Amino acid sequence: MKAYIGIKFYPQHENRDTIDPLSHAVESAGYQIISMQRDVEAYGVITYGPGELMRRTCEIIDACDLVVIELSEKGVVLGIEAGYAHGKRIAVVAVARERLEISATMKGIARATKLHAGEEDLAKFFQGLRDT
Question: CA-to-CA distance for 97 and 70, rounded, in angstroms?
Fold first, then answer.
């Protein structure tokens, strides 16, 4: 099964320390992961204009079974990605670090949500999700 990871974009990739542990946690549950920043843009080695980037993102989401939206830092594109997946009937899961908030709107379209304490907590969550 394939899972897309949506996370706030930073041109200098300051959130790599969030992308990599989240990717590992989801992979540990048996999913093949794809992240635009990590896998498509290779953390800035390759860049695309906004239109091409969104076209590629939608194509990738279309090929996935699950879309994981990391909401520890909010971003408009995260809502677009989640809404697009939901409209295509692709399961959406929203996660954020403990003590943060996941909006009621996101909770309304997500198959599941998780406020987490780190990679190990996320790994257990995704393994349990996979088993249901």
Answer: 9
Place of tokens 């349990």: 128
CA distances, 38 to each of 18, 45, 110 (Å) = 11, 10, 23
DSSP 8-class letter at 118: S
Is the Cα torsion angle 90, 86, 16, 125 positive or negative in sign?
negative
Instruction: In whole angstroms, give the CA distance from residue 105 to residue 31.
Output: 26
* Euclidean distance between CA atoms 80 and 92, whole angstroms: 12
The CA radius of gyration of the chain, in Å to the nearest whole number, is 14
* Percentage with pLDDT > 90 across the chain: 81
In b/e form, how buried is each residue of 9-47, taking b as 16+ CB within 10 angstroms? eeeeeebeebbeebbebbebbebebbbbbbeebeeeeee
pLDDT class of 10 with cuts at 50, 70, 90: confident
Q: What is the pTM of this model?
A: 0.94
